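Hi support team,

I submitted a single chain yesterday and got back a structure, but I'm not sure I'm reading the token output correctly. Could someone confirm the output below corresponds to the sequence I sent? I've pasted both exactly as they appear in my results page.

Thanks,
R.
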Amino acid sequence: MDNVPGKGHLIAICGIDGSGKTVQCELLCRRARQAGWRVETMGFPRYGEGFFADLVARYLRGEFGQDPAQVNPYLAALPFACDRWEAAPTLRAWLATGALVVCNRFVAANLAHQGAKIAAPAERGEFLRWVEELEYGVFALPRPAVNVWLDMPVEIACTLISKKGERKYLRQTRDIHESSLSHLKATHEVYRELAERGDDWVTIECSREGQPLPPEEIAERVWSAVSQALKRAGRCQPQGPSRIGGQER
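Hi R., thanks for writing in. Yes, this is the structure output for that exact sequence:
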């Protein structure tokens, strides 16, 4: 784990669109604060904040191609990565103070969504290595202590996506990733491959008998996995005061 030794840890919540990442990030932050952690959180892309997030929004609106497969994965990966590069000093500063940093999407989202466009295993592997070198090497982003993959079946995720309202950055109800069933299926499979890599990944099953689990039940599984990951990292106790609503306690 490449976070600052003895300092904070970064937790990345991962999953296809409709898997419940935003809800689980909120519940994880709440639970960690209750346990005494000082928590900081950031969601990517940073719409309305980062210089590169506007380019991401244009891509997701379909301005460069309505089918995700039409946009070269190397080119599409760059604005997402640059958005994180722009935020990296803030992330590193939080980690240096001992915070538990929870990110809604991180580097793995680039690996999965853009890697899903490449079918050939050898070419996909080359692309995944390129993204990791770009984000963790050239851009020096901190590596997550654990990537939490919310394994929501594609069919259920599609149903949940259909319940989303219009989002300001999109000016519509679905982005090009959400609108493509083939892209969602391919992305899900890449996430599965990534989650089988090693001990910096955990898989959280988010459904039972064709139905999504209650968010609270998923949150319990997430908290258990994160707690175990922190224990393996040698940090089973919070460091420093926790903050609720921006106030220390």
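A quick pointer for reading it: Strands lie at 9-14, 39-43, 100-104, 146-151, 201-205, 207-208, 211-212, 243-244, 247-248. Let us know if anything else looks off.

Best,
Support desk
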